[in-house]
Amino acid sequence: MKKSFLKKDYGIIRSFDLKNKTVKFLYFILLSGALLAVFIAIFPIIWTILSGFKDLKEFVNEPKIFPKSYHIGKFIETWKILNFGKFYINSFIVILGSIFFAVISNGLLGYTLSKIRPKGYKLINFLLLWSLMIPTTTSIVPLFINIVKIGLQGSFIPLWLSAGANAFFAILYKNFFDSIPQSIIEAARIDGCTEWSIFFKIVFPLSFPINTVITIFTITNAWSDFLLPYLLLNNTGKETVMVRLFQFRNSVATDVDIIRAVTFSIIPPIILFAFFQRYMMEGITKGGIKG
């Protein structure tokens, strides 16, 4: 590791730059700052997981970071008491539907703006960009009223549809599709392919990087979303993990049980990011650079 770094010939600071004492000092300052930022970011997660191993007495009376013992059985017991598996299933249902609509609906819109370009597409593109400046919470009230009027409260469907109407995702798709040569699309049209066939048989298979990014973003958003699921699913038996965590404030669950429940809620996003961060960066890069 050290030898490979000493031979590094890329990046802002290269191996020969470290021969300068000033550069070397600045390098260690930057490295220390980065390590401090990482520690600040992950410390709450570590504290939450470690606190879950404590019993109620130890948690309240002994404010130490590390527990006296590490028994995974405490987490298993809390999982059973809170019936957490049910809410995991509800969240996964929301995630699966959201992925389908996020990829297909936003992908079709991005393809339309990038390759079909109907009359007025520039105005639609402008409105998409402009909508990114509007806080999402400002649309919650009219959105909820419309959902109630059409009778979809207490259903997962509005959560799926909201994922399929994401301006940020549509813009990412458009930028990615702009990098696909127009000659491929024109050749398919000459061969008699419809726009539907071009999208699903040609463009969609070429869109693996951006599809991966959209999928990861959708999973993260659907898993961590609270406000709309709370308004639609509260006291219906279809609550997601985040809604159920909020409901624990009025339950018989102890503080330690809630800490363990929080641990259950943060594990999936951590695993997701650890395995797919490379695809996220690759897809964002390809989606923002025209080739």
Descriptive overview:
- Helices cover 72% and strands 0% of the residues.
- By secondary structure, it is an all-alpha fold.
- It has two domains: 2-51; 76-288, MetI-like fold.
- α5 packs across α9 and α5 (84-116) packs across α11 (195-206).
- The two termini are 34 Å apart.
List the helices and strands and how they pair.
Layout: H1 2-6, H2 21-51, H3 56-61, H4 73-81, H5 84-116, H6 121-131, H7 140-149, H8 157-163, H9 167-178, H10 182-190, H11 195-206, H12 208-224, H13 227-233, H14 241-247, H15 255-288
Helix pairs in contact: 2-15, 5-8, 5-9, 5-11, 5-12, 6-9, 9-15, 12-15
Quick tags:
291 residues; mainly alpha; 2 domains; 15 helices; 72% helix; disordered C terminus
> CATH homologous superfamily of the largest domain, by name?
MetI-like
Biggest sheet architecture? none
> What's the CATH first level of the largest domain?
Mainly Alpha
Distance between the termini: 34 Å
Which regions have little confidence, pLDDT < 50, spanning 5+ residues? 287-291
List the domain count as a whole number. 2
Number of DSSP helical runs: 15
CATH architecture level-2 label of the largest domain: Orthogonal Bundle
Under CATH, the topology of the largest domain is which? MetI-like fold
Specify the structural class: mainly alpha
> How many β-strand stretches?
0
Mean pLDDT: 82
Helical content stands at over 70%
Oligomer: single chain
Large-scale geometry: flat
N-to-C SSE string, H for helix and E for strand: HHHHHHHHHHHHHHH
